[in-house]
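Final report, Chapter 2: Outcomes

The project's central promise was a pipeline that accepts a single protein chain and returns its three-dimensional structure in a standardized token representation, suitable for archiving and comparison. That pipeline is now operational. To close this chapter, we reproduce one record exactly as it appears in the project archive, with the input sequence first and the structure output second.
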Amino acid sequence: MASPRRPSSPAERHPSPFYGSRKRKRGTAPFSRKRFGQHFLEPVWVAQVIRAIDPQPADHFLEIGPGRGALTRPLLERVTSLQAFEIDRDLAAALRTNGLTTSKLTLVEGDFLDTANRLAGARSHPLRVAGNLPYNVASAILFKLLALHASGVPLVDATLMLQHEVADRLVAAPGGKEYGVLSILVQHTADVERLLSLPPGAFRPPPMVRSALVRVRFREPRPSADDPETFAALVQTIFTRRRKTLANALLAFPLSSRLAPGAALERAAIDGRRRPETLSVAELVRLGNVFSSVSG
């Protein structure tokens, strides 16, 4: 699954509620560091989020960004096992020293984007995901989850806290300004449901943006793409030119050198005067399949 360019520096990559570190006095809670945008969920909201996740005793969970353990503790009380991915060494150490050493918990120190490949062999149990995603890498993490699902990792669903605008893009329908690459590639292989809206006051310190809790339920692609990489590349190409007509936007797609945009659109039964943002997922898959037929 193709994914967008990742920011290069640690500060760019991890401006999140739970990413980043700062030296602190021994025995004190980790600082909330403005540079990394750390915001910790208030207890009254933790209870609502846990109810929305609805963990069950037989569940096996992954948690992205456990931070101070606000969700980790109640999850451990309710599930069979939990793997938690924490990039911040100070926060990971604090989790260990604050009693989170149960055999149910596997704490992985490192960037989820770099360490999640260890899940490739975790095929024995269906896995559920929970987490408060770093805002600047939320899309990259979502694409990573899609790629893990496509590779055979048995992901069932992911209940994720996101910036409100990212949630809007995930559930967007064709025709709106929020509808784009993220909407299409996620909706192609998952069903998305908005569960909660969280005001800035749900966190300490309050962020400058609203947040939302969404559930992504993974499934087989619908409809099936003959070549997922061609489909993803097509979507990314034309949505960087979303205000152009399809006939013009497709001129930038490499496979248009093998099959002219007009001919491809005719085979896919799509009007070339339409703009990319008006196409449904099914129409985009159909157009991708036409180009896949000449990619070999």
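Archive annotation: Residues 20 and 88 are 6 Å apart (CA to CA).
This record, like all others produced under the grant, will remain available to the consortium after the project formally closes.
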